[in-house]
Amino acid sequence: MIRDYFAEMYVAGLLADADWNVYFPRRDKGFDYIIARQHEGATLVRPVQVKRLYPSAEKGDRTAYGYNGRLTQLHDDMALILVYFRPGVHTGTPCHIAYMPRRQIRPRERGGYRCVPCGLTNATVSPRRDFVNYFDTDGLAAMATPNWA
Question: Which contiguous run of DSSP H or E holds residue 84?
């Protein structure tokens, strides 16, 4: 069972709790939603794509784990939000959420994009040292700064 819409709505709720306004498109042609909030008299606007990830023992241990695939739209101020669920569990709250800026999304030689801020050991994800500041409450708070993107 894969809960397609759950991750998007869960993150939207967290963003709303953090004083972001969440705007849903009439048609989903790339970004899942657009978020905006005031910061020091200016309006911050971020297009958002949410991707859910389900680690498992079958994937093996990896030093870099995250999203590898296509993104239908990119924007310099976008956030790619990676929602990591607990191993083998497709219900309940995520174990980690990574709020990744555009500069951390790399093109792959064979097409698509790669953003791998976690490691995977024994089917458990953990933020990589250089990406800790993008995770969970720290990552959510960092998104509200103008130079984050």
Answer: strand 79-84
